[in-house]
Amino acid sequence: MKRRYVNATLFLLIVLATAFGGLYLGQHFMPKPHVHQIQSASSWHQILHDKLHITPEQDVRLEEIERHYRQRRQYLEEQMRLTNMELAEAIKADKSFSPKVQAATDKIHHAMGELQKATLEHLFEMRPILTDEQNRKLEQMVTDALYEQK
Q: Would the pLDDT of 121 be above 70?
């Protein structure tokens, strides 16, 4: 009977060590998501302007929309960074999938969802300024990008 408890304890310690080892490797050796998102957003913006052949007049009209989106995106990316830190602290403190860990995870998912909504709102705000052909290209680019994500 005693041996069963020793084996169960050893098994749990191995599982925990593996989980925290994976977490450590992911946090220290994988690219930071918010850096990648910023680069993707700025390169996506450039591609968007290049492929849609935005005219100087359209560019002037789009500037306020772009400025507002940049501010909103930066705010939401900062929220995700802060909630990732909150999650890391909760994991360190609780060492289980506690209510604090769940709450931090929910906050991250909320911020990610808000960023996706802000991006879509931004794209739809652009539509009245674009020509029909530009709107068709924009829609195709967005749907292609969504289908490519796995």
A: yes
